[in-house]
């Protein structure tokens, strides 16, 4: 499996951006990626005042490469960039070594 991390710095982001990002994910982004062909799953992660990122796991290297190429081309205009006020500081492909599902299972929800 192939992964991709896209990270934005929140160091100079507007006050209250964390709540805006959480609302954007819940109201828009989650639905965009749910059921996306070639994508196994996506998680959204945030450390207040530090960074916001999307972590993607793709079914194939081809699916990852196509998404990465398209995203990179328009990264400065992506919704996250518009909300935060800057382009991502990192767009990085990686290998996914393994995925485990815990005893309590997995729940795909727009709000954690």
Walk me through what this model shows:
The protein is 32% helix and 28% strand. The protein has helices at 17-33, 61-73, 79-84; strands spanning 2-9, 39-47, 51-58, 90-95. Strand 2 (39-47) and strand 3 (51-58) form a beta hairpin.
Helix content: 25-40%
Structural class computed from helices and strand pairing: alpha+beta
Strand content: 25-35%
What would you call the shape? Answer: globular
| Individual helix count | 3
Largest sheet data: 4 strands, antiparallel
What Rg do the Cα atoms give?
A: 14 Å
Tell me, rounded to a whole number, the average pLDDT.
94
Secondary-structure element string? EHEEHHE
Cα end-to-end separation: 25 Å
Placed side by side, the strands forming the largest sheet appear as 2-3-1-4
How many E-type strands? 4
Unreliable segments of 5+ consecutive residues: none
Short description:
The protein is α+β, with helices and mostly antiparallel strands and 112 residues long. It has helices at 17-33, 61-73, 79-84; strands at 2-9, 39-47, 51-58, 90-95.
Give the SSE map.
Elements lengths: L1 E8 L7 H17 L5 E9 L3 E8 L2 H13 L5 H6 L5 E6 L17
List its salient traits.
single chain; 112 residues; alpha+beta; four-stranded antiparallel β-sheet; 3 helices; 4 strands
